[in-house]
Design brief:
326 residues; Rossmann fold; 7-stranded parallel β-sheet; 55% helix; 11% strand; alpha/beta
């Protein structure tokens, strides 16, 4: 081999310096992150082995993400309590669960729940606790959405969305919390949205309710941290469910359309698995979305002026599209 060829095989000194600099800078960050990840995986596996027999209450369990969560936790050997307004649909979900080959398997419990009826929630919790005497995991998943700008949205619609999406979950959490504190154990999971991290046009009522949920979860987490109670807040992007079909318009009527973004969203089954991992790892706050939503989140906090400009352009585009369609 010629001397020139040998020189080509030897790494350039400039590259050696670059590798050394990157290693020096990144290693103190990468190593702790890797160790935390390994520790979280170990803890998740340990807790997964303890999941069979845990009592899991899921609201909004009659369809969509709630139904997928019911399947995930039932397959994990949990005692699932399914709650929603549509008991007929809950019975369908229960029938589907019982058809699964699961060991151990506990017959799912179906209970009617209307989150808008705040005064009925304490009595609902009494019925819940009468089933197994406890709830180990509460998943606040029930909710509704709105498709309308601020000017055309009736205050009654804002109020309804806030009651169902925020106050309903708050009332349920407060009613169950004393039993968790008494046992010194429990996990409360709030299913929020990336729109609880940043707001977009024509989602003011929905986004406001999710912002409130995020703040409540953050405060509650701090308050119960010394009581062995965990609080998670999950903020998904668009999910391929019936959410937009069941959404309200500004007048309170049914929106009844499948949005393109919703149709192209992540599968509820995939999200349900990620939520299970979140609970197993005791993660306090996670965003589960595509890159676009995550970029918007960081823009809102790191470069708000650019974010506001983009949202203004989006609002104008939506307004023009609405005028054209009408």
């Amino acid at each position: 081999m010629k001397e020139q060829d040998l020189e080509k095989c030897v790494p350039n000194s400039d590259w050696n310096v670059l590798y050394w600099v990157l290693g020096t800078i990144l290693m103190p960050v990468a190593l702790p992150l890797a160790l935390v990840n390994i520790w979280q995986r170990f803890r998740a596996q340990k807790y997964r082995n303890q999941l069979p027999g845990k009592v899991v209450l899921i609201t909004g369990a009659s369809s969509g993400l709630g139904e997928s969560l019911a399947h995930v936790f039932y397959r994990a050997g949990c005692k699932v309590i399914l709650a929603a307004r549509r008991t007929q649909e809950l019975e369908r979900v229960k029938k589907d669960l019982l058809a699964l080959d699961v060991d151990p398997a506990y017959p799912p419990t179906v209970l009617a729940l209307d989150l808008a009826e705040l005064n009925s929630i304490p009595e609902f919790v009494t019925r819940v606790l009468a089933v197994y005497n406890q709830v180990d995991i509460l998943i606040n998943n029930g909710g509704i959405s709105v498709r309308a700008d601020v000017a055309s949205t009736a205050v009654d619609v804002d109020l309804k969305v806030m009651v169902v999406n925020y106050f309903g979950g708050v009332a349920l959490t407060k009613a169950l919390l004393p039993s968790m504190v008494k046992r010194g154990s429990g996990h409360i999971c709030f299913i929020s949205s990336v729109q609880g991290k940043f707001a977009i046009p024509q989602r003011a009522a929905y986004s406001a309710s999710k912002h409130a949920m995020q703040a409540f979860a953050d405060s509650l987490r701090a308050e119960v941290a010394n009581k062995n109670i965990n609080v998670s807040c999950v903020s998904p992007g668009y999910i391929r469910t019936q959410l937009s079909l069941n959404a309200l318009t500004g007048s309170g009527s049914s929106y009844g359309k499948m949005d393109e973004t919703t149709a192209k969203g992540m599968s509820p089954e995939k999200l349900a698995e990620r939520i299970l991992q979140c609970i197993l790892r005791k993660e306090p706050d996670i965003i589960v979305s595509d890159a676009q939503a995550k970029i918007a989140y960081y823009l809102r906090h790191l470069c708000p002026s650019l974010y506001f400009w983009i949202m203004a352009k989006r609002a104008l585009k939506l307004e023009k599209a609405e005028k054209k369609s009408s």
